[in-house]
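Re: export button greyed out
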Amino acid sequence: MSEIKLKLKNKINLPLEAESITPDNFAGKTIEDIKNLPVYLGKEQGTIGDYFIVSGKSGEKNELKIIIEGDASNVKRIGEKMTGGEIIINSDVGMHVGNHMRGGKITVNGNADDWAGAMLKGGELEITGDAGNYVGAAYRGYWQGMTNGIIKVKGKVGVESMLWAKGSAPSKKFPTLICGSAGSFLGIHNHGATIIVEGDVDRCAGADQVRGIIVIKGKVPKILPSFKKIGEVKEIELFNGDKITGKFIEYSGDHSVTKNHSVVDKKTGEISKSANGRLYIAA
Amino acid sequence: MVIKKIKTVYDVICPFCGTLCDDLEVDIENNKVIEVRNGCQIGVKKFFSSNPSEHRYEKPLIRKDGELKEATWDEAIDKAAEILTKAKRPLLYGFSSTECEAQSKGVELAELLGGILDNTASVCHGPTLLAKQDVGAPSSTLGEFKNRADLVVFWGCNPVHAHPRHLGRYSEFVRGYFRVDGRNDRYIVVIDPRNTHTAQIADLYVKVNPNEDYELLNAIRAVVRGVELDATEVSGVPMEQIKELADKLKNCKYGVIFFGMGLTQSLAHHRNIDAAICLTRELNDHTKFLIIPMRGHYNVAGANQVFAWNTGYAYSIDFSRGYPRYNPGEFSAVEVLLKDQVDASLIVASDPASNFPAASVRQMFKHPLIVIDPHESPTTVFADIVLPAAIAGIEAEGTAYRMDNVPLRLRKVKEAPGESLTDKKILEKLIEKIKEKIGE
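Workaround output, generated via the alternate export path:
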């Protein structure tokens, strides 16, 4: 496995847009070539070499590991649209880390700003600290957010995470968020995502959820009035077949949405489990 | 005998709030406003504020040794152009209280500078625009509501004080084509945490807990769909009242929701509007229902229009890459100031120092600040350069968009005092100078 190390020279005051930092862009290039890749500070175009000390050796995309050192809290869009390889960021990171990512893995050993993993289409994003708002969300005006892949956040995610996420069991697309705790409007307009929260969640979880599973192992201040209690369960089966055991109260919803699939199954007379919106909260 | 030379201008558009009343009569004597008829209290005040006073700027000012000193236009424009061209990430903010022609120049300047362009919608009805992008919006012009609506909902707004003539012209007391008996032909619902003066003259007042509008909207949507809810009370509103309200909404002939900042700027922001629009959409299965925001500044709707037809986006636009990009929260004025991501600001026809969070105002004052404004304000007091402007709609002609996006032609009733120029002229001068400096 080949490795490239990027070390920030100085602290950056204005946001630096560095969507060129991906294994796709670095693959097969010499250190000189990588230094000449463009980055943007305000309206000025610069190069990676202007802001980073670059060392190591490049190689095949999927075999390439990029390690970023120094305070990257103002560096935006690292790993945008990457399709393979690995990025490790040993610091806090700016907005849009791993947005539109299709494959590979990004690890942030610190906190991430807003829009981490926005519209993720595959691959894995791991954040060891907290993440900002709109984790795995759809960008403004899009009706389809995260469609596949997994985001793991140890700490808290901000508001409106997984906005408009869209999964599909038949085509084996399971957009998943696993996080420590979450802000308000978690999984809003959910269309089939799986969200597992180890801790507490703020108000309005699962608002406008059409399909999907939200599992909350901690507490919520209150549940939206349009969710209906079904009963207690001991085991939850996720879309991808995995199972979670524990004592949970099952709710169906959101029942305020026009297109709601929490319909009564004509054969069994029970609320359909095949396509539905579900919220599970630890009993 | 003394002959007074009073000039009366009829059918003047009032450049104050988004209602944009178009029937004012203004008397002018010696280039001073001496009387305004038909206007409301707040609108009339604005006309009188155009008269010379110690608050009115008449000459360009430049800060020298810590004090604002009078300067010539050439000096001031040159200095301002220098600040803006040197900045790596300048912010251009305001634009909602000026005419569309000046706003268009603002877009040109922002593109030239590669800066961030934002208007006051970002601290006002920006959430409305976000929600519209997510779920669309069924809406109409105010004339339709006046002639047809028999159910009017005011949610989180208080037009008695904020849009005083709205009720008399479009929504409550006015006689319409199908509403010949005016107020008696309309059922008025007010939903608000406070028992406002608008609520006191309503037929039904629903008192909702502060910041819990989303839950209430959510419950109404479910009830309208015929879902039996487990809850006995939502956001402080008993279930019976929610059912009564849902019933009223479903059984009207033509309903409209007017909403204000009580929805857009309480905790759930654009999600409140998202839910309100979804409710409106739902209600169209039963009757005719529309929704419209109560815009504040008289031309904030115009700012959104002009920015959108020039760049594709209504507010929070970043030109740093040469092409427009849009992301409220990333490129909106408050956020970039809070995170200290701009290094110079140009404020046009706005007073962010009074309205923004203190922390972001502090950051704005840290960097060079240029203000185009007719009056002294908390923003101009800390500015490095003040460029005196004529008041659009009183001392300058132009176009403005009413809250329902109907364009109206603003009129000029008097001359601007001193050396004041129109916003458009000032921005043109700046553009010319900046082009000279960057050699374009």
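The longest strand of chain B covers residues 6-12. The button fix ships in the next patch.
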